Amino acid sequence: MRYPLLYSFRRCPYAIRARLALRVSGIQVTLREVVLADKPAALRACSAKATVPVLVVNHQHVIDESVAIMVFALKQNDPQEWLVTDADLAAECQRLIAYNDGEFKSHLDHYKYADRFPNQPMEVYRAQGESFLSELEAKLAISPYLLCERPTFADMAIMPFIRQFANVDKEWFEQRPYPHLQAWLMELLRQPLFTSVMDKYKQWQEGDPVIMF
Ligand SMILES: N[C@@H](CCC(=O)N[C@@H](CS)C(=O)NCC(=O)O)C(=O)O
Predict the structure, then answer these.
(1) What one-character DSSP code corresponds to residue 143?
(2) Cα of 177 to ligand 1 centre, how many Å?
(3) pTM for this structure?
(4) Which CATH number belongs to the domain containing residue 172 in this structure?
(5) How far apart are the CA of 66 and the centre of ligand 1, in A?
(6) Dist CA 10 CA 16 (whole Å)
(7) Most Cβ neighbours (<10 Å): which of 34, 189, 190, 195?
(8) Does one domain contain both 128 and 190?
C-alpha cells in the first residue's frame, strides 16, 4: 500500500482534528469511513480499542490516538506552523487539550446525551461544560487564537469539540455571552480547510474501491 490508511468517522471530533492535520500537511491517505455501531473487522485487527481515528502507515505502524496522528502529520510538513515550539505555549497547549479531551469531553457527552444520564438535568451538564467555554472566551479576548495571533495545534485540536458543543443547541450557544469564542468558531468553520475535510463518504466495506483523501 503506497498511502497511509485512515479509519475515520465524519462527525467524530477526534477524527476531524486528525483530518485537519493530514490535510494541512498535504499527506494523502486512503480513507475508510467507519460506522461506530458496525466497526469493520479490519479496524479491530489493527487496533484493539478500535476507536477512530486510526492511521496505519506502511501496513504496520498503527497510530490510534488523534493527537498522535496530528503530530505525525505535522512533523512531516507543517506549512502553517501549527506545532508549538515555545516551551510555555507548548505546556499551555498540552494543558488545554488534556482538559478538552478529559473533563470537557465528558461534560459534552453528558450534555449531548442528557437523556442517557437522568440523574441530573441537561442544564447541569451544560453548565459544567460551559466553564471551559468561559475559559476559552477569556483567552480569545486577549488574542485572536488560543495561544497567540495565529491558529496553532491547540485551536485545531479543540475547535471540533467546541463545534459539537455548540451544535447541541445552536440557538442557546449563539445567545451566550461568548463573542470572541463565537467569532473564533465561525472563522475556523468557514475556512476552506475545514469544509474540505467534511465531505461525506459511505460506510467502507471490505472490497470497496479505494477512496483517496
Ligand atoms: N483518545 C482517542 C479517542 C477517540 C474516540 O473515542 N473516538 C470515538 C468516536 S468520536 C470512538 O471511536 N468511539 C467508539 C468507541 O469508543 O468504541 C483519540 O484521541 O483518538
Answers:
(1) S
(2) 31
(3) 0.97
(4) 1.20.1050.10
(5) 9
(6) 7
(7) 34
(8) yes
